[in-house]
Structure formats: structure tokens, C-alpha cells
């Protein structure tokens, strides 16, 4: 999908709850997701609330994103439970799966699959959830990240925007801290710069 999109650009918008058919425009597939207006963020958001609700990119299961930016940012509000699944490729073309969830208690990594907890995520507040995919791939699989192929966002959350960035350093420190059994940094979202266009404004 993104092999030749915006070469050299430091960030790329993947989803925004704006317009008449934003999911179709950004080529996402949804199940049980509603679009609602939230006064707190002055606009529409995607309500991924039911147990079976999910957002998926790309919409076509046979396609891959081929997005080489190694950092994913989700602007949203996370409720009691939340999970996101990512499928990535390394430099040799081998695919790996990453499952991040607030319901996971411990770290479980195999050759091709990683299950990671999210103890540092603040609940019931609008945040920029920053995921250093390249750092996770390096720490869990001991290989170099090449591209992101698939995203699946599951309940329970509200999503305003999703975008990708080339690099963010602070998240790698957080995931290294998790892998070594130390307490994760909680103020991570104050230590990186959001592109002005994508600033999260909360009333």
C-alpha cells in the first residue's frame, strides 16, 4: 500500500475521524465501530467499544501495508481493556506478530510471535499512545525491523487519529525497561514532539 507513498516524509497519517467516509478513504475495515462526536476533543472519534469491535488496516486481508516507518502513534482514549495486533517484516522478509494488550500480565516471546503487557498506559484519558515497533522487533526477535504490514485495533477504546513516524527514541527506552523487568516510564508522552498538524487538543 505504502511502498511509494511520500518518500522522505517524517510522518504519515493513517486514519482520522473526519469527512463522510473516513474508513473507506484511508482503506480501513471495521466491525462494530461507531463514529461519535466528542466535545472533549472537539470532533468525531471512532468508538471501538463492543467486545467484538475492531479496526483493521489494510481492509483487504490479501494486501500488506509495507510501511517502513518504525513508530506508530494512536491518539485515543483507552478504557478497561485494550489490545492491538501488529504484523511486521524484518530485513529478510520473515513476518513476525506482535500482540500488545492491557490484559497480558507477562512478556512471552517466541521466534515469530511476541505478547507484551501495557502497564504504563493511562486509562480513561486522551493520550498519544506511542509504539516503537522497530525497538520492539529488535528487543523481542533480535532482528532489524523493515516494514509494518498489518494493524488490528481491538476494544475497548476511542480513536481520534492514527499516524506513523520514522523514529522516536524514548519508546525504545520504555520497552527495554519492560524487557529487563523494571518499572516502565509513565511520562513518556511528554518527551517527544508531535507534528503540529497532529497535536491532540483536549478541552
Give an account of the 3D structure.
The chain has 203 residues and is mainly β. It has a single domain (14-189), classed as Jelly Rolls (Sandwich), CATH 2.60.120. 12% of the residues lie in helices and 39% in strands. It has 3 helices and 13 strands; from the N terminus they run βαββββββββββαββα. The chain has helices at 22-25, 133-141, 169-179, and strands spanning 11-16, 29-31, 34-38, 43-48, 54-57, 71-78, 83-90, 95-101, 108-109, 113-117, 126-132, 145-154, 157-165. The strands form 2 sheets. Strands 2-5-12-7-8-10-9 form a 7-stranded mixed beta sheet. Strands 1, 3, 4, 6, 11 and 13 form a 6-stranded antiparallel beta sheet that branches. Helix 2 packs parallel to helix 3 (169-179). It is globular, with a radius of gyration of 16 Å. It starts with 10 loop residues before the first strand and ends in a 24-residue tail after the last helix. Residues 170-192 have low confidence and may be disordered.
Across the major sheet, the strand order is 2-5-12-7-8-10-9
Q: What fold name goes in the CATH topology slot?
A: Jelly Rolls
List low-pLDDT spans.
170-192
Number of domains: 1
Average pLDDT level: 81
CATH architecture: Sandwich
Strand content: 35-45%
What is the rounded Rg? Answer: 16 Å
What is the total tally of β strands? 13
> Which bin fits the share of residues in helices?
10-25%
How far the N terminus sits from the C terminus, by CA atoms, comes to: 35 Å
Which structural class is indicated by helix and strand composition? mainly beta
What is the makeup of the main sheet?
7 strands, mixed
CATH class: Mainly Beta
Topology as a string of helices (H) and strands (E): EHEEEEEEEEEEHEEH
How does the overall form come out from the CA principal axes?
globular
Number of helices in the DSSP assignment: 3
Amino acid at each position: 500500500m505504502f511502498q511509494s507513498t511520500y518518500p522522505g516524509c517524517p510522518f504519515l497519517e493513517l486514519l482520522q475521524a473526519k469527512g463522510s467516509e473516513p474508513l473507506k478513504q484511508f482503506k480501513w475495515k471495521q466491525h462494530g465501530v461507531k463514529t461519535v462526536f466528542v466535545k472533549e476533543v472537539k470532533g468525531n472519534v471512532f468508538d471501538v467499544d463492543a467486545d467484538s469491535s475492531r479496526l483493521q488496516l489494510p481492509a483487504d486481508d490479501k494486501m500488506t501495508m509495507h510501511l517502513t516507518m518504525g513508530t506508530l502513534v494512536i491518539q485515543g482514549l483507552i478504557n478497561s481493556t485494550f489490545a492491538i495486533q501488529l504484523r511486521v517484516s524484518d530485513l529478510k522478509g520473515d513476518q513476525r506478530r506482535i500482540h500488545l494488550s492491557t490484559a497480558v500480565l507477562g512478556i512471552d516471546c517466541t521466534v515469530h510471535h511476541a505478547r507484551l503487557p501495557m502497564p504504563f498506559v493511562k486509562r480513561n484519558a486522551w493520550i498519544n499512545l506511542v509504539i516503537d515497533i522497530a525497538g520492539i522487533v529488535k528487543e523481542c526477535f533480535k532482528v532489524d525491523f523493515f516494514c509494518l504490514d498489518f494493524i488490528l485495533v481491538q476494544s475497548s477504546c476511542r480513536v481520534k487519529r492514527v499516524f506513523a513516524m520514522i523514529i522516536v527514541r524514548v519508546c525504545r527506552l520504555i520497552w527495554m525497561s519492560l524487557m529487563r523487568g523494571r518499572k516502565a516510564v509513565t511520562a513518556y508522552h511528554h518527551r517527544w514532539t508531535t507534528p503540529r498538524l497532529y497535536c491532540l487538543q483536549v478541552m
